């Protein structure tokens, strides 16, 4: 599973503590990405570190109940943010925009169908030819809807720095 790591300073800001405290937590076993070496900056696995900190603080009973709830909420919020960044979840408003655009495309293409084919069908007496004309129009509509859906889904893919 992909994690979104952060620096000691970023993690300290996230939990409202100083860098020294976070460094002490790392020494005490807080999860980090890779191995911690002298002179190398540690990279913190946010979801795992928040869960570790929550369990540690709960076990040590050094935080009040309100602070524990806040820490839990921050961990949940960070997990949700990470899911959005990884493209595992999208906001309802974004999904609604994409679905609305695709529905609008379907409606406009289907509403235009009679106007595009009326004269051609009226002039044609062969049922197989009429069937082929209708099938071509439906195929074009299906292709347009598939293309719009693919474009929408591609726009949702996360654009993380490599």
Structure description:
The protein is mainly α and 162 residues long. It has two domains: 5-85, Winged helix-like DNA-binding domain superfamily/Winged helix DNA-binding domain (Arc Repressor Mutant, subunit A, Orthogonal Bundle); 92-156. 70% of the residues lie in helices and 5% in strands. It has six helices and three strands. Strands 1-3-2 form a three-stranded antiparallel β-sheet. The chain starts with a strand and ends in a 6-residue tail after the last helix.
CATH topology of the largest domain: Arc Repressor Mutant, subunit A
Work out the number of β strands.
3
CATH architecture of the largest domain: Orthogonal Bundle
What percent of residues are in strands? under 5%
* Strands in their spatial order, largest beta sheet: 1-3-2
Shape: rod-shaped
Query: Can you tell me the CATH superfamily of the largest domain?
Result: Winged helix-like DNA-binding domain superfamily/Winged helix DNA-binding domain
Instruction: Tell me the count of domains.
Output: 2
Mean pLDDT: 82
Q: What's the total helix number?
A: 6
Class of secondary structure makeup: mainly alpha
List the main descriptive attributes of the protein structure presented here.
Arc Repressor Mutant, subunit A; 70% helix; 6 helices; 2 domains
What are the SSEs and their pairings?
Elements: E1 5-7, H1 8-15, H2 19-27, E2 32-33, E3 43-45, H3 46-60, H4 65-85, H5 92-122, H6 127-156
Antiparallel strand pairs: 1-3, 2-3
